[in-house]
Amino acid sequence: MIPKALVAASLKPFILSLLAGGESYGYEIIQRIHELTDGKVRWTTSTLYPVLHSLENKGLLESFWRAVEKAPRRKYYRLTTKGYQALDVEKQQWLDVHTALMKLWGPQPQLTPG
Amino acid sequence: MFDLNKAIASWRRALTYNRAFLGDDLDELERHLRDQVEGLQAEGFSAREAFGQARGEMGDFGTAEAEYRKVYWGKLRRRRELYHELRWRLSMLKNYLKVAYRNLARRKGFAFINISGLALGMACSLLILFHVKEELSYERHFPKADRIYRLNDEVAAMTSAVHGLELQNDIPEIEQTARLAKAGQGAVKYIPKQGEVRQFEGTKGYYADSTVISLFDLAFIQGDPRRALKGINTVVLTADMAARYFGEDDPLGEVLIYDEDRLLQVTGVVELDFSQ
């Protein structure tokens, strides 16, 4: 069980990183995170969509609709130039924390047995 | 027979009038639900089971609404609908006020009782609040107020005369003490060099340690704050008292006769405002 704080902190880096690989939509994003974390993290709609909207409001993402076979159309998101810049910032910040921890834990961190 | 479309329609209806969710947002969420239901059906679940699970994962409206609210104004700004939204809210407000007024006008007696009751309640609450606040506070306008404490015994704000000195000796944290004792309401007589003897009744005075001056940072208009009250039989007057007793004459150094047999020399005049 990954604590809420960690899930919340990783939302932005995850979303920006995923969308850097190409456009996507909410449901697909949640699926991919679920796979990436080996099932340990499952975002809810209330978690993801408001953040997508917030990032869009800030100009890091832009959205567009694509018509689908059946009723409601699907909303896709893709990264803007500002978004790519923000991704770099997130990467740097995350790596800063990460390298510091790795210094303490060593390159192959072991969990204490038992 | 479970009807997926009906279920989704009823879900959507519940959210339609919620201000936090725009039409586009509901489209997005509905698409999400349908995608998820499809996915679950592919795994073998029935439509009903799939919908139940998908709907459950969506969570309750409360949290969803709270999160959506946070981004609401940002969305409006981006879509340039701020003006539109504010005008709508204004017209809703006007409508509510209109209806309220109409309802009150229809039942004037009821309105009167209600509103005056409310007004009375508010007035009383405010009064009580201020009264209590007043009662619980002492003068705060002395610069050292937050370091000054008054020692009481259980019944009155009085302790014995030796308390002050003993405590100051025993407890190092106490920086300074000052003792005050109410003097009786004796007559104060002043014999000026010229003119008649002036006598004043009902004066209020206190016996005091010389340390009161530094404790309360008394502002001296006349006299030396460091030496006034050092000797016995010295007295410091407030500006008002000085004006009252001496009028135009200079009080400093003059002698007042207290209670017919005590001679007190005026060694200072302070500015002290008792309205606090």
Question: Would you tell me the structural class of the helices and strands of chain B?
Answer: alpha+beta
Biggest beta sheet attributes of chain B = 6 strands, mixed
SSE order of chain A in H/E notation?
Answer: HEHHEEH
- What is the overall shape of chain A? globular
Number of strands of chain B: 8
Strand content of chain A: 5-15%
- CA distance, first residue to last residue of chain B: 80 Å
Helical percentage of chain A: 55-70%
How many helices of chain A in DSSP terms? Answer: 4
Query: Using only CA atoms, what is the Rg of chain B?
Result: 39 Å
Helical segment count of chain B: 9
Note the run of SSEs of chain B as H and E.
Answer: HHHHHHHEEEEHEEHEE
Largest sheet of chain A: 3 strands, antiparallel
Q: Compute the CA-based radius of gyration of chain A.
A: 16 Å
* Low-confidence spans of chain B: none
What fraction, in percent, of the residue positions of chain B are helical?
A: 40-55%
Beta-strand percentage range of chain B = 5-15%
Number of strands of chain A: 3
Distance between the ends of chain A: 18 Å
Question: How confident overall, as mean pLDDT of chain B?
Answer: 82
Poorly predicted parts of chain A: none
Task: Provide a quick synopsis of the model.
The complex is a heterodimer of chains A (114) and B (276). Helices cover 58% and strands 12% of the residues of chain A.
Describe the protein's architecture and organization:
The complex is a heterodimer of chains A (114) and B (276). By secondary structure, chain A is an alpha+beta fold. Chain A contains four helices and three strands, in the order αβααββα. In chain A, helix 1 packs across helix 4. Chain A starts with a helix and ends in a 9-residue tail after the last helix. The model of chain A has no long low-confidence stretch (mean pLDDT 93). Helices cover 49% and strands 13% of the residues of chain B. Chain B has nine helices and eight strands. In chain B, strands 2, 3, 5, 6, 7 and 8 form a six-stranded mixed β-sheet that branches. The chains are: A alpha+beta (114), B alpha+beta (276). Chains A and B meet through helix 3 of A and helix 2 and helix 4 of B.
